[in-house]
Fold this protein.
Amino acid sequence: MAGHSKWANIQHRKNAQDAKRGKLFTKLIKEITVASRMGGSDPNSNPRLRLAVDKALDANMTKDTVERAIKRGAGELEGVTYEEIRYEGYGPGGAAVMVDCMTDNRNRTVAEVRHAFSKCGGNLGTDGSVAYLFDKKGVLSYPEGLDEERIMEAALEAGAEDVVVSDDGSMEVLTAPDEYESVREAMTEAGVKPERGEVTMRAATASSLDADSAQQVLKLLDMLDDLDDVQNIYTNADFPDEVMQGMS
């Protein structure tokens, strides 16, 4: 689905920028801490923690930093306690936007998220107002220029649900959330290791935007992404090609 692919590519660039200024590490440490607190400190029996640790190590976080975050979550070290909150709303042009946060101050977070929505011409909705538009999926991403047939064949054998090929030739292998790890391992063993992978919320249908609305939605996503309490942002916005080209 083109809209998701474009937003995923924007997020990937943002993550690269975040990594340079240390912001990505803060998000990853929060995720490890909460995953450890909720599901235990053993990555082998806690799939969410294993995913968070893999993502942190892929971003070149040191093992010491990872272990400290796990211990903090398990209560072995003192630290801030974060709670998870999801906010849902609509941006300009009717694009659905879902924002996952981790915070130690719920009032601060909702005020900041609401401010971003209202400043960019969107509005915060109630729980469930847009969540039904998204499905939880494992996504393995491949850049353009690879052997499409080989990836499709490996994905089929690995038990993936679907392979989506975008207009630019890039590919996404979709899995059920609990099959993500096994499919990723199988694809890697088959010699087609993904460029990146994650378990994410994926829009079931895209919301096409005109150029003006798309610019406003991107401004909203930027504002949300800059908030310290925001972990992940999901949208069903389908950005026009001319807007995307202007970003590259």
Notes: The beta strands are 83-90, 96-103, 123-124, 134-142, 162-165, 171-175, 196-203, 207-208, 230-235, 237-238.
